[in-house]
């Protein structure tokens, strides 16, 4: 089995204390993973973008950049070691993005993912040779204007975190409240927050073309029942519970969610089924069922991620993710891999698919049909059929319990 999304305290301040990549990989190998991705956060540019725990420990944008460089060195060292040793698990070196303001894209392309070859690299290949893949994530709202945003809702100086804690999320909601909103009803503000989030996500996907789309609907972490794509019973419930004044916002939101899914599906991105939400009081992994159904209807590809922030998170709630996908009728999933020499040769001879081809797929009924399996940063997506019968699933919780017991 596989995961594409993980963090440890050596390079991430909000991960489990004393955790480190080597321990994460050892745990994954012990549980029977065949592919495990390291994906520390990219550094941020401004002091105002630091999280409270980073400020508390004295971090600065400069020190975060140095930590990022240290991560790349350590991750490649571990990847090389696992290639040499008969551990039967491949290690991928990735990074998780941010998209906080209009300046984020420039900072990532010129300073973080850029290098000597950056001038010749497109968004899809930015970071090639530095990392194997990107987890394309957004963790803020308010710093990016959505297309119909009113001047009544000016941009925040920097984006406001939406997943740090409930109080900070509520502050983000408050940013999107208008004077004419009905007192006590923050539904319009929540819709505007989601519009800002998905506009940032669209810009990130369009400019970076990440191989993995991270926790697609993180914007509703603190409002898990919030519907993004009303249909059937949920459409009737939404109409009954909300005033007609929010209908235009809901219609716009449904369109931008569909737009984002279409873009990612059209170039072959993998949407992670992220089990972290299940340890945060959700009933399902990210994305929730309304979005998952849309991804599948458009021919999108899925992968698994645990978004682990410490060894005890590795593979956590994976059995629930399995049940979730089976309930949706998912018969195949994908994981990233490094291509063999033969595949690289074949890939080079075929050349990259053009943007014109992608746009044609993007306007089709199922834009995922015919999408490439190769990515310009160097990875290849491998399909796994019969994934639900993999021996990995048998006794997974027992293996996790035994490993946890050794630590206590």
Topology readout:
Blueprint: E1 2-3, H1 21-31, E2 35-41, H2 52-56, H3 61-84, E3 90-96, H4 104-112, E4 133-136, E5 140-141, E6 160-161, H5 166-175, H6 187-208, E7 212-213, H7 232-241, H8 247-266, E8 270-274, H9 289-297, E9 301-305, H10 318-327, E10 332-337, H11 341-350, H12 355-362, E11 380-385, H13 396-407
Parallel strand pairs: 1-2, 2-3, 3-4, 4-7, 7-8, 8-9
Antiparallel strand pairs: 5-6, 10-11
Helix pairs in contact: 5-6, 6-8, 8-12
Structure overview:
The structure is a single chain. α5 packs across α6, α6 runs parallel beside α8 and α8 crosses α12. 39% of the residues lie in helices and 12% in strands. It contains 13 helices and 11 strands. The protein has a single domain, classed as TIM Barrel, CATH 3.20.20.140. It is α/β, with parallel strands linked by helices. Strands 1-2-3-4-7-8-9 form a 7-stranded parallel β-sheet. Strands 5-6 form a two-stranded antiparallel sheet.
Structural class assignment: alpha/beta
Task: Count every beta strand, where a strand is a DSSP E run of 2 or more residues.
Answer: 11
Instruction: Specify the helix fraction band.
Output: 25-40%
CATH class: Alpha Beta
Overall pLDDT score: 92
List low-pLDDT spans.
none
The second-level CATH architecture is Alpha-Beta Barrel
Report the total helices.
13
- The spatial strand order of the largest sheet comes to 1-2-3-4-7-8-9
Pathway: Amino-acid biosynthesis; L-histidine biosynthesis; L-histidine from 5-phospho-alpha-D-ribose 1-diphosphate: step 8/9
Catalytic activity: L-histidinol phosphate + H2O = L-histidinol + phosphate
Family: Belongs to the PHP hydrolase family. HisK subfamily.
Region (Disordered): 344-374
């Amino acid at each position: 089995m596989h995961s594409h999304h993980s963090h440890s305290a050596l390079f991430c301040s909000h991960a489990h204390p004393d955790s480190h990549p080597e321990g994460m990989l050892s745990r994954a190998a012990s549980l029977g993973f065949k592919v495990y991705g390291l994906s520390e956060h990219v550094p941020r540019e401004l002091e105002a973008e630091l999280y409270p725990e980073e400020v508390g420990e004295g971090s600065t944008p400069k020190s975060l950049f140095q930590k990022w460089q240290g991560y790349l060195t350590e991750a490649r060292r571990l990847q090389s070691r696992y290639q040499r040793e008969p551990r039967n698990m491949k290690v991928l070196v990735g990074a998780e993005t941010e998209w906080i303001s209009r300046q984020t894209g420039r900072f990532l392309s010129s300073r973080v993912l850029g290098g000597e070859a950056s001038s010749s690299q497109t968004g899809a290949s930015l970071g090639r040779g530095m990392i194997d893949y990107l987890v394309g994530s957004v963790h803020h709202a308010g710093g990016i204007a959505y297309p119909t945003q009113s001047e009544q809702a000016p941009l925040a100086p920097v984006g406001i975190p939406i997943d740090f804690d409930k109080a900070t999320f509520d502050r983000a909601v408050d940013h999107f409240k208008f004077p004419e909103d009905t007192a006590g009803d923050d539904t319009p503000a929540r819709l505007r927050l989601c519009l800002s989030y998905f506009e940032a996500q669209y810009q990130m996907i369009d400019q970076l073309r990440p191989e993995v789309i991270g926790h697609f609907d993180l914007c509703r972490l603190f409002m898990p029942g919030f519907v993004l794509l009303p249909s059937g019973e949920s459409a009737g419930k939404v109409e009954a519970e909300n005033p007609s004044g929010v209908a235009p916002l809901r219609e716009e939101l449904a369109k931008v969610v569909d737009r984002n899914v279409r873009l990612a599906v059209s170039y072959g991105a993998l949407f992670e089924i992220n089990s972290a939400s299940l340890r945060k009081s959700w009933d399902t992994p990210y994305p929730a069922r309304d979005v998952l159904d849309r991804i599948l209807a458009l021919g999108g590809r899925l992968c698994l991620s645990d978004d682990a922030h410490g060894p005890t998170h590795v593979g956590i709630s994976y059995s629930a993710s399995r049940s979730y996908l089976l309930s949706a009728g998912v018969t195949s999933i994908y994981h990233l891999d490094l291509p063999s020499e033969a595949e690289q040769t074949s890939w080079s001879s075929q050349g990259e698919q053009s943007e014109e081809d992608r746009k044609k797929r993007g306007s089709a009924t199922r834009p995922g049909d015919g999408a490439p399996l190769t990515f310009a940063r160097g990875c290849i997506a491998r399909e796994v059929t019969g994934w639900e019968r993999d021996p990995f699933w048998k006794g997974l919780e027992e293996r996790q319990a035994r490993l946890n017991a050794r630590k206590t």
